[in-house]
């Protein structure tokens, strides 16, 4: 009798532990692997319109950039915007092909995972849509030169599918994903 009870209890524990239903904790752990994410922006340093937009910010006044306001004919194509030593922590690696056309990548902020706000299980618990929020942290002085709107929280969705080795986040779910 005791042996049978112990066997049933062991089977119940293993069944519970090997449950394939996606939990909030599992979803959080998988989503957290993608964060923090750096939000960057390309600054076209030789573009007069970008230089004009930079003049409307406090980047030069605060010592992050210098802006050349006039160029002679021989200087056409040279950068209007140059970065100071103070800007160095915000400058990101820029591919050579972009450097050739006078582009510099700058860091704007970081997105950090905050929490899961909802889960919808589909297809007999083999697919899931998870809604979650992210927040901006480490916002840099370069945000005003971009189109980034720093909001307190951003809502996001992640699409999950159950594979033989466990749950995975799908990069781009196809139309069949939502079919039950």
Give the SSE string. Answer: HHEHEEHEEEE
- Structural Rg: 25 Å
Structural domains: how many = 1
Shape: elongated
- DSSP strand content: 25-35%
| Percent range of helical residues | 10-25%
**Spans of at least 5 consecutive residues with low confidence:** 1-18
Largest sheet data: 5 strands, antiparallel
Question: What would you call the structural class?
Answer: alpha+beta
Strand order of the largest sheet: 1-4-5-6-7
Query: Number of helical segments?
Result: 4
Count of extended strands: 7
Average per-residue pLDDT, rounded, comes to: 87
In whole angstroms, the N-to-C terminal distance is 44 Å
Organism: Chitinophaga oryzae
Protein name: Lipoprotein
What does this structure look like?
This protein has helices at residues 2-17, 24-32, 48-55, 96-100, and strands at 37-44, 65-67, 81-83, 103-122, 127-137, 154-163, 166-170. The radius of gyration is 25 Å and the shape is elongated. The protein has a 5-stranded antiparallel β-sheet. It has a two-stranded antiparallel sheet with strand order 2-3. The chain is α+β, with helices and mostly antiparallel strands and 180 residues long. Strand 6 and strand 7 (166-170) form a beta hairpin. Residues 1-18 have low confidence and may be disordered.
């Amino acid at each position: 009798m005791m042996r049978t009870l112990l066997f049933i209890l062991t089977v119940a524990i293993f069944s519970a532990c090997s449950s394939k239903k996606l939990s909030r904790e599992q979803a959080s752990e998988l989503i957290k692997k993608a964060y923090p994410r750096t939000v960057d922006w390309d600054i076209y340093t030789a573009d007069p319109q970008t230089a004009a937009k930079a003049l409307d910010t406090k980047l030069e006044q605060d010592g992050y950039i210098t802006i050349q306001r006039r160029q002679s004919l021989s200087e056409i194509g040279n950068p209007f915007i140059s970065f100071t030593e103070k800007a160095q922590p915000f400058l990101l690696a820029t591919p050579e092909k972009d450097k050739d056309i006078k582009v510099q990548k700058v860091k704007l902020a970081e997105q950090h995972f905050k929490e899961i706000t909802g889960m919808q299980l589909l297809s007999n618990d083999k697919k899931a849509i998870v809604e979650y929020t992210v927040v901006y942290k480490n916002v840099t002085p370069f945000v005003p030169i971009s189109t980034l709107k720093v909001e307190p929280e951003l809502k996001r969705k992640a699409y999950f599918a159950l594979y033989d080795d466990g749950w995975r986040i799908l990069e781009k779910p196809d139309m069949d994903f939502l079919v039950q």
